Recover the amino acids of this structure.
């Protein structure tokens, strides 16, 4: 009888790119729209709003890429240092490392005998892989990828920032700030819902959270533009 193959799509595999993508797009929409609304509150014309938005897009995308690359590179460096130390310990003290791994399995509920056998077989197959996963908590799906995180953040920031720019370009002049704000809030709502669905989280709560902070940021920058731009 042929064995049936059981396959599951785990959402944890999406965490690396999903976090960077959501953060980049959310920040692209929110920071660009907020900056444009602050400039609009200071009685700027459409051309000045578009210039401010383009500058925010370029600067923000580069800032996101650099920030993500540096932070995730630090995580990757830490992981590599831990793996290097683990390889040295495996080479110098294989018996102690076998017992250390067995003790982990005992704490998870296996009997000492079974834990020792599981540890022996796993280490025979892939010693560093077994210790990386069960002792250090490092897995292939969760490993730090600096370049991927940087590119994802930059591209999604730019994609998000384009939306308020399009709204400012297309909206009628009397309704320009309202168009930018409304478009940004609608897209932020959709983004929050999409991210929640991809990650298996409650959709309404995630969307509400994004909209609340987005509206607050835009309100504060509008107030700042009126205050420092000489508006009434």
């Amino acid at each position: 009888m042929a064995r049936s193959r059981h396959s599951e799509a785990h959402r944890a595999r999406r965490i690396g790119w999903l976090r960077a993508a959501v953060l980049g797009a959310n920040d692209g929409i929110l920071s660009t729209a907020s900056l444009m609304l602050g400039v609009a509150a200071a009685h700027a014309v459409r051309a000045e709003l578009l210039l401010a938005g383009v500058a925010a897009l370029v600067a923000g995308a580069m800032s996101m890429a650099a920030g993500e690359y540096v932070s995730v590179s630090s995580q990757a460096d830490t992981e590599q240092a831990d793996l290097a130390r683990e390889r040295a310990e495996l080479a110098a003290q294989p018996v102690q490392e076998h017992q250390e791994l067995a003790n982990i399995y005992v704490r998870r509920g296996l009997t000492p005998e079974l834990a020792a056998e599981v540890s022996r077989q796993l280490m025979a197959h892939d010693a560093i892989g077994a210790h990386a996963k069960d002792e250090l908590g490092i897995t292939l799906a969760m490993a730090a990828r600096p370049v991927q995180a940087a590119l994802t953040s930059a591209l999604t920031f730019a994609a998000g920032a384009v939306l308020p720019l399009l709204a400012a370009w297309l909206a009628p002049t009397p309704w320009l700030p309202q168009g930018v704000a409304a478009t940004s809030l609608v897209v932020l709502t959709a983004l929050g819902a999409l991210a929640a669905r991809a990650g298996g989280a409650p959709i309404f709560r995630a969307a509400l959270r994004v909209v609340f902070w987005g509206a607050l940021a835009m309100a504060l920058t509008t107030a700042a533009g009126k205050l420092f731009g000489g508006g009434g």
